[in-house]
Design a protein that fits this description.
Layout: E1 12-15, E2 20-23, E3 32-37, H1 48-66, E4 70-75, H2 82-90, H3 97-114, H4 130-143, E5 146-148, E6 154-156, E7 198-203, E8 221-223, H5 227-237, E9 240-247, H6 251-264, E10 269-276, E11 279-281, E12 284-285, H7 296-300, H8 305-313, E13 321-322, H9 325-350, H10 378-383, H11 388-395, H12 400-418, H13 425-441, H14 452-456, H15 466-487, H16 491-503, E14 506-511, E15 514-519
Parallel strand pairs: 3-4, 3-9, 9-10, 11-13
Antiparallel strand pairs: 1-2, 5-6, 6-7, 7-8, 11-12, 14-15
Helix pairs in contact: 2-3, 4-5, 5-6, 8-9, 9-12, 9-13, 11-12, 12-13, 15-16
């Protein structure tokens, strides 16, 4: 499957508005897929629930690009919000709201990079797009879909829009409110004509920081939660674009209200809506309010980031991920099998020395300057044909169960080739490259960034670190001693040496070509 084709995508996705799996094609611009993804409200540290959405849409992007599409992905940052103002003021000591937001934005960026999430085309901040939001409010006022409150607030008149509720299939008469509970201030918003109307512009409050407000024709204030996404999606993707994505908890009221704003302005907005399911802990949705959120930083102190990505990113996006120690243990075992097989193939075919750089010829560090047969650069990996079963599974609503079945079959083929008395280099390299190509779509190619250095045990500058080289010599000496003990049938001595290595965090694997080691 060539990465050069510009044919219409064959992908079918579950559209939350249509409540059915529908073709993505035709796209608004042939050969390009425009995606708007609701990003972080940077009120606190990122947890794995946030990362689930980022990884889901990273896999979608990778698959579309693998199929020859250009992807324009916008992921916003909400850096002004009721929660940001409240939490920054309540900190001990209190922090400026903008400093609070920036600190947590940087934490999100670090988490995305640690988990191998490709950077979006653009990542606009809400505070950088106040003019676009003011323009949208003006449009809605002129169109009769919005009105000014007595205190300088501006509200969207939900009864004025005939298709309000069409995204979530709700009737307006069945709704008590169209606001998130955390966004409602009954005392300030008493000037609503209808309790179901939602805020477009919130009048400045005396108790809030003076720099958390902007001048507007209807009074100084700040944008409502929903306004930024309508304004920024139009700014970067146009009035109509292909996919709007986010977590399923954003469907109502956030996405319903975004759609209402954009439709009220006369824009087509999103042609398709794609939502990922929750991450749960003991059956409950992960959230800060429940106190069961697991921050990425906490988890990365214990687990390999590739294991976290595998646990979150190889479950179908519309299925809930039940996060537990068992889930992580299963993911760790699978990652060890996948990465270990690729490394063994690299050693068998490209030589033990190989090309141990962490960077190399590929733009994402997926290969050496003088590429080996297994340690090929990213372009070669991505040019490799994918099995028809894999392609069919991914084109069917990103069917990861079917895709992973192919991955497991390829892993089995690679291990069979490696276990041969005299492994055939061509067959080993072919199976390893097939496995890398399939994992690359999932963002889990062991020889690509950010996994490569950790998998190969090399320094971040691409050369073997002195400490790694010293460790290799020490471990190799013990393995030689163990091999001598096994040859002498001194099993107790051999086992004791293996246990000594295990206690130091070194895992020993015996194979037909001898013992190899890696860090646990």
């Amino acid at each position: 499957m060539s990465t050069q084709t510009t044919a219409a995508p064959a992908l079918r996705l579950y559209d939350s508005a249509a409540r059915a799996v529908v073709p993505l094609a035709p796209t608004v611009t042939p050969g390009t897929v425009a995606i708007y993804l609701c990003g972080a409200t940077v009120q606190g540290s990122p947890h794995i629930g946030h990362m689930r959405s980022a990884i889901v849409f990273d896999v979608l992007r990778r698959w579309l690009e693998r199929c020859g599409q250009r992807v324009r992905l916008i992921r916003n940052v909400t850096d002004i919000d009721d929660k940001i103002l409240a939490k920054s003021a309540a900190a001990d000591p209190p922090e400026p709201w903008w400093a609070w937001a920036q600190r947590h934005e940087r934490e999100f960026d670090a988490a995305y990079r640690a988990l191998g999430v490709t950077a979006p085309t653009y990542e606009p901040r809400a505070t950088g797009h106040i003019p676009e939001m003011l323009d949208l409010v003006g449009r809605l006022l002129d169109a009769g879909h919005a009105y000014r409150g007595e205190s300088g607030n501006v509200y969207f008149d939900v009864a004025s829009l005939a298709d309000y509720g069409s995204l979530t299939h709700q009737r307006l008469e069945d709704l008590a409110t169209t606001e998130d509970e955390t966004q409602i201030d009954q005392a300030v918003e008493a000037d609503k004509r209808d309790p179901r109307d939602f805020a477009l512009w919130k009048a400045a409050k005396p108790a809030e920081p003076a720099d958390a407000a902007w001048d507007a024709p209807w009074g100084r204030g700040r944008p409502g939660w929903h306004l930024e996404c309508s304004a920024m999606s139009r700014r970067y993707l146009g009035e109509t674009f292909d996919i709007h994505g986010g977590g399923i908890d954003l469907r109502f009221p956030h996405h319903e209200n975004e759609q209402a704003q954009s439709h009220g302005a006369g824009w087509g907005f999103a042609r398709h809506w794609v939502h990922n399911a929750w991450v749960t802990v003991k059956g409950e949705k992960m959230s800060k309010s429940l106190g069961n959120s697991l921050t990425v930083a906490e988890l990365l102190r214990v687990y390999d980031p590739a294991v976290l990505r595998l646990a979150l990113g190889t479950v179908h996006y519309r299925s809930t991920v039940e996060f537990s120690e068992e889930t992580l243990a299963d993911a760790a075992a699978l990652w060890e099998r996948l990465s270990g097989a690729v490394v063994r193939a690299r050693e068998a075919v490209d030589g033990a020395g190989g090309a141990d750089g962490a960077d190399g010829a590929g733009p994402d560090g997926a290969g050496p300057g003088a590429a080996g047969a297994v340690d090929a650069p990213a372009e070669a990996v991505r040019a490799r044909a994918l099995p028809a079963e894999y392609v069919a599974a991914m084109n069917d609503d990103l069917g990861l169960a079917g895709a992973m079945a192919v991955v497991h079959a390829t892993l089995k083929r690679l291990n069979t080739e490696l276990a041969a008395p005299t492994p055939d280099a061509g067959a080993v390299a072919g199976a390893a490259l097939d496995l890398r190509a399939q994992l690359d779509v999932l963002g889990l190619d062991p020889l690509a960034r950010p996994w490569r250095a950790r998998v190969l045990g090399v320094g971040p500058d691409g050369s073997a670190a002195a400490a790694t080289a010293a460790l290799d010599r020490l471990v190799s000496d013990l393995l030689d001693e163990r091999a001598a003990a096994r040859a002498a049938r001194d099993w107790a001595r051999a086992d004791a040496l293996r246990e000594r290595l295990a206690a130091a965090g070194v895992v020993v694997e015996d194979g037909a070509s001898g013992a190899r080691w890696h860090l646990a």
